Amino acid sequence: MSLPQSARLVEVGPRDGLQNEKQPISVADKVRLVDDLSAAGLGYVEVGSFVSPKWVPQMAGSAEVFAGIKQKPGVVYGALTPNLKGFEAPVEAGVKEVQCSPPPARPSRRRTSTAPSP
Q1: How many domains does the chain divide into?
Q2: What is the rounded CA–CA span in Å between residue 66 and residue 71?
């Protein structure tokens, strides 16, 4: 078996880690978290998700977070979006790398993909 020459570690805490928090988190606190992760030497930080705040309230303000972070040279700052409509917002916010993760097509998969983790 041949192993790859390199691997990319992606820090998803500002998106995945915060999206299930019950208390609102300010844009300033999100900016500070991303800046601290960059300062710690991480090469890729997934800053937020461009989704409807109706569905994921903690991701409200992702464009403002991108505008507020101190982008360190050599660090990739990415975002997640569920669909093409959501793809336009990060592009307008200047995001250079966007992961599109469409929801499952079948209703049974949709239920499990949006169910809370145990």
Answers
A1: 1
A2: 9
Q: Which amino acid is at 32?
A: R
Spacing of C-alpha 6 from chain mean position: 23
Largest CA distance in the chain: 47
Q: Which residues contact 111 (CB under 8 A, 6 or more apart)?
A: none
Tell me, yes or no, whether 5 lies in a domain: no
pTM: 0.80
Q: What counts of helices (H) and strands (E) characterise the chain? A: 4, 3
Q: What is the pLDDT of residue 63?
A: 95
**What was the pLDDT predicted at 107?**
59
pLDDT value of residue 82: 86
Distance CA 61, CA 14 (A): 12
Q: Is residue 4 part of a domain?
A: no
Give the domain extent around 99. Answer: 13-114
| Separation CA 63–CA 78 (nearest Å) | 12
Residue 92: HSE in the Cβ half-sphere, 13 Å Cα cutoff: 10
Residue ranges, the chain, pLDDT below 50: 108-118
